[in-house]
Every structure is written in structure tokens, then in C-alpha cells.
Predict the 3D structure of the following.
Amino acid sequence: MRIGIVCYPTFGGSGVVATELGMALADKGHEVHFVTYNQPVRLDFISHDLHFHEVLMEEYPLFQYQPYELALSTKLVEVVSKYNLEILHVHYAIPHAYAAYMAKMMLKEKGINIKVVTTLHGTDITLVGSHPSYKTAVEFSINNSDVVTSVSESLKQDTLRLFKITNEIKVVHNFIDTEKYDRESLNECQRIAVAKPEERILTHISNFRPVKRIEDVIKIFHSVKKVISAKLLMVGEGPDKRKAELLVKKLGISDSVIFLGNSHEIEKILCYTDVFLLPSKSESFGLSALEAMAANTAIISTNTGGLPEVNVHGVTGYLSHLGDVEDMSKNTLNILKDDLTLSRFKINAKNHTNKFRLENILPIYENIYSSVLEKVL
């Protein structure tokens, strides 16, 4: 099949999933074209037969904000026409689903019937998409997609609650390439590089937005640090990073917290990790938690959104109510109290990721593509 993929080319979960999916599809022999404003951060052209088409926007003084959705829909028409694409798989409702619909209408006038698959990832629905400025357009785009998927049952229910949806929504969980996180293949995984042998290593990875509750991460670690020797790895960049740095300084734990910024070495960082902290206000799925679990890491998270579909309470880690730092700290210490307990949680976490293996999820998307192409025009 000839497939176009539209996503945000960033470190965020939707961009990562779209990129990994595209590379896996290319490995299966499909012709895959990425269409976005920058090359996706995890896109590997060397190892995969892929195509990338950059969406360019001309600066024009009339516009305070450049109309990206217009440039995107125009580029989609160009790419679909030139390469005879059959399917556009757009990740994130805003503005991708809307731009894909406009491209579909323009292509229809050329006698080209492109199919549109829209995948909903989270804040495109719960935070941004439901805003009055966008709600009508998002609702229209979802209902006029040929197929709609959601990365969790929780997000599906949120979408049905917030919008008047007439289209079916299929739940297709995010996936993980477990081989990338195999500790035996990570020859450079030397914990001594970041911590002393007796220190436990806790990690948080995100875009440091308010929804991630970065200060809760620091507070949890501070409580843990009072009881056991530990280090905290903070991976990512975002608006709340400065708040986190100030809180670390205020609590007097600067020597134990390492801010690593954005990283292309997530697998290596996670191979050091004992417990992954994710006290988010909302997670449509929790891809970062799944990546950590694949790397043999126990999870401490809230019970919001799709996280209970990923993190099994008392098995792969623990779930706590939003903002309950005391409970999350207690649960972290319970996991770390001895090597045997920690090992049990790590093994359980690793085993649970088999449910989300790439080879299990990829055929679901291939079947969706095949089914939509078989529909009578």
C-alpha cells in the first residue's frame, strides 16, 4: 500500500507513535511518505526506505500567524497526486484531520479518492479540540474521516462525551518495539555513569508542561531521598522546567537531580532506571510509561486517563489519585525496599509489555487500511 503519514515531528507521544508506525510499515514493504513541517525526531532514513515531504510556509505580513493547515492541505494534494497515495493516516486531530479533509475534497475534484484514517492521541481532544474555537471543526473532521482510531478506551469515552460523534471509533493501543529496550543489547548500559552502586535511580520523561505535574515528581523524589540513597533523572524540556529547577534548589537536592534536556538516547536512560515517575493530571495512554516498562522499569503513576490500561496496580507498579504525593512516595519506597521486590516489579512490567508489542499492533493498522480501501466508493 502507498500511505501518507501526517504528524507533529516532535518528541511528543503522537509524533513518536506515528514515526515508529511509519518505519514499521516501510519494513513490511509498504511505500510510506511523511508530510510535516520538519523531519520527525525519530525518523531513521538510513535503516528504512522512507520519503519525507516538508510543508513550507511563505512569510506574509498580512498574517499574524501563518496558516499551517492551508499549507498542509495543499502539500497533501501535491504528494497524493504525484505519488498516487491510497491512504492518509493523520495523527492528532488539530489541524491534521481538518487539513486532510480539505485535501480529500480538493482531490475529489481531480477524480482522486483518497482515504483518511484519523488517530486521536489525547490533548487534541481533551484540552485543545474541545475548546469552542475548534470544537465544531474537530467534530466535523472526525465524523468525516473514513476511519477513526483512539489510542485508549479512556480517550474514546472522552471523545464521545465531549463531541457529537456519529463515526465509529476503534481503540488501537499504542505499541512498543520491545527489542529496542533489551538490556542485553544495550552494551553501554553502565549505571555507574549516573549513580553510585548503592543508589536507586528514578526517572521522569516528558515535555514539562503543567499537565505533567513536574513539581510532584520532585516532591516524590524528595520524600524517597529522605529514606534511601537515590538519584533522579529529569529528561525533557518545557515551560515548567524552570519551576522544577527552583524547587530542587529550594529543597536542597541539587546534587541528586540531573536535568538531561531532550534526548535521543531514551533507551539508554531507561536501562539505568529502577522506577519511572508519571504523576500526570491526564494521560490519554502513557507511552512514556510503556517505554519504561519495556526497559524493565517499575511504574509509579496517577490513575488518570488511559494509565490504568498500561500500569497494573500492584503488579507493574502502583496507581494513585491525582496529587497524592504522599501515596506515590510510599508506593515508590515499597517497590524499592529490597532487591527482591524491585526485581519482581521490573519483571512484571517487562512481561506486561508483550500485550503492546509492535508485531501485535501493526497488523491491526494494516487490516484497517485494507478494509477502508475495499469499501465501495
